[in-house]
Amino acid sequence: MKHLILIKYGELTTKKANRKVFINMLADNIERQLKGYEIKIRKDRVRMYIEVEEKYILEVSKILTRIFGIHSIVICYPVDTNIDKIKEKVLALLHDISFDTFKVVTKRADKDFPISSMEFNHVIGGHVLKNIDCKVDVHHPDLVLKIEIRKEGTYIYTDEMKGIGGYPVGIQGKGMLMLSGGIDSPVAGYMALKRGVDVECLYFESPPHTSLEAKNKVIELASILNQYSGRIKVHVVPFTKIQEAIYKNVPDSYIITIMRRIMYRIAERYGKMRKCKIIINGESIGQVASQTLTSMSVINDVTNMPVIRPVACLDKLEIIEIAKKIGTYETSILPFEDCCTIFLPKHPVIHPLLSRAKEYESYFDYESLIDECISHIEVVTDFQKKYKDLL
């Protein structure tokens, strides 16, 4: 038996002439995330309706709560816009629910329906009181009965699951996320996804200095982010030769500055190859030496591609709170070092000079090393399976 899920758009309704583009993108994303389920999608400018088998209704609803562009998800019961049929459907629905107090909220989108919303609340409320032992409480009811009267029919429901809002992933184009194994960058990726950016991930590994467990950790983080996207790829950059060249040729205090500058060069060059419009990272102002305003300016000097830092103005506790909410925190705190921490000097420069950075880069041929590592990037697409194979 088919059941109906009603989707409310939220922020998408602020769009005008191009609202249809956003809605179509959302429908495409829903179809991708629900691949394997037999569903049928119907959509208009204000609502989307998904038909699904009754046995999958809760499972599908849970998946929908992780798809950006959705304000709320409702398991609803359609009925013809006929007062007697609406009354009959309401009683059938409420007889299976335990409650002592209730109120009715009617939305009359079809203005041809002859009874106003307030009047219809009284009509249905009175019918419920005559047939079920309960009371009306308009302030703190146990149950809210909602009725939407639309042109094509009437929809009745009681429960409304909150979606995660935002824009449909992909509507803004693609960005390259510099994904480490820490707490911040997965949160930055999530926040970029929420604004409609289709995210691909760039991970810098440096074996044997970094472990296989560190790589597995990043792939698992990407797997968690993919629950909110459905099409994330992980691009693994072999960074060992570059990192060793930096360690050999650059003064300790500037190692992190030069390393980050080269990472940005790789992110820009490879990002353009992947048709990305922006670089995304988890930098938070002042959190570490490479994230002071001076450091960020010197590091950012190597790229003309816009760099988006979604967590730049959040403190660590705020970032941790989001990480826990989206499910990345427990993985992020696993004790496996990445290449940003493995060669961390005791006293990294806090206010680097651009002239010094350029001078130290001239001590080795980083361009040929960049060419080599880009040509050997490993692309992980079916990363959930890949992650299991690596364990």
**Order of H and E elements:** EHEEHEHEHEEEEEHEHEHHEHEHHHHHEH
At the first level of CATH, the class of the largest domain is: Alpha Beta
What overall form do the CA principal axes indicate?
elongated
**Architecture (CATH level 2) name of the largest domain:** 3-Layer(aba) Sandwich
- The CATH homologous superfamily of the largest domain is named HUPs
Strand tally is 15
CATH topology of the largest domain: Rossmann fold
From the alpha carbons, calculate the radius of gyration and give it in angstroms: 26 Å
Distance between the termini: 41 Å
Structural class: alpha/beta
Number of helix segments? 15
Number of domains: 2
Percent helix among the residues? 40-55%
Architecture overview:
The protein has 391 residues and is an alpha/beta fold. The protein folds into two domains: 164 residues, VC0802-like (2-Layer Sandwich), CATH 3.30.2130.30; 217 residues, HUPs (Rossmann fold). The strands form two sheets. Strands 1, 2, 3, 4, 5, 6, 7, 8 and 9 form a nine-stranded mixed β-sheet that branches. β10, α5 and β11 form a beta-alpha-beta unit. The chain is elongated, with a radius of gyration of 26 Å.
